[in-house]
Amino acid sequence: MKADLLAEFETPEALLAAVEELYRRGYRVLDAFTPYPVHGLEQALRLPRSKLPWLVLPFALGGGGGCYGLQAYLNGWDYPLDVGGRPPHSAPSFVPISFEMMVLATALMGVLIFFALCKLPELHHPIFEVEGFAGASQDRFWLGIDGRDPALKRGTTEALLASLGASRVAWTGETAKAAETSEAVKKPTEAAEEVPGAVTKEEPS
Questions:
Q1: In the chain, where are the structural domains located?
Q2: C-alpha 138: how far from chain center
Q3: Burial track 156-191 (b if 16+ CB lie within 10 A, e otherwise)
Q4: Of the candidates 57, 52, 64, 61, which has an alpha carbon nearest to the alpha carbon of residue 113?
Q5: What are the two backbone dihedrals, phi and then psi, of residue 18, each rounded to the nearest 5 degrees?
Q6: Residue 169's closest CA among 158, 160, 181?
Q7: Maximum distance among all alpha carbons in the chain?
Q8: Do 61 and 55 meet the contact criterion of CB atoms below 8 Å apart?
């Protein structure tokens, strides 16, 4: 998720309350960054169940089934050996290695698919530039709102987050630069309006 607006909270309870209130007000593209798992946060964010188990299932079946099939082929048909009078295709002796290969294939592909789903490795992200965001790995709880969220409105959302107990609200990346540019343009205009007796040039009719 691309979090364009971040809000810092000091407690997990405040974060949970803010998520619930934002969802009630129509915000849908939300995310959270916390130093440890917060009970109930996944449900509050309405996150769907991970599809990782279903994605690694074919590799688990392929690893275990492929290993079993290879053993059965080599021992039963390609090069059968009569060892202790046991049949060439001895299923109990094939199970341990097949199980180990299933676990190995699941672990390796699970890590690779997890990295792909999370778009990792990502050495830099705009949220890393936000002052104080390092607290997300220590003792602070951050809430992120995606810029694509239709309910997100500059000024209104910031005021709402502040009213919900956010100790810090900040825009990220290009959104932050756009906000700074907008403020820089507004300040000279506001200053001119505040000067007593300032004359405004009127266009001839």
A1: 3-49+124-176, 52-117
A2: 18
A3: ebbebbeebbbebbbbbbebbeebeeeeeeeeeeee
A4: 52
A5: -65, -40
A6: 158
A7: 111
A8: no
Q: What pLDDT is recorded for position 175?
A: 65
Range 66-103 burial, b when 16+ CB lie within 10 A, else e: ebbeebbeebeeeeeeeeeeeeeeeeeebeeebeebbe
Q: pLDDT tens-digit profile of 164-183?
A: 999 999 999 766 656 554 55
Sequence-ordered strand ranges (E) for the chain: 3-9, 30-33, 141-146, 168-171
CA distance 156 to 161: 9
Say how far apart CA 129 and CA 108 lie, in whole Å.
Answer: 33
Closest of 50, 6, 43, 49 to residue 23, by C-alpha: 43
Q: What pLDDT does residue 81 have?
A: 86
User: Residue 183 has what pLDDT?
Assistant: 52
Q: Is 108 helix (H, G, I), strand (E, B) or coil?
A: helix
Task: Rank 21-25, 46-50, 128-132, 178-182 by mean pLDDT and report only the highest.
Answer: 21-25
Sheet holding 30-33, edge to edge: 30-33, 141-146, 3-9, 168-171
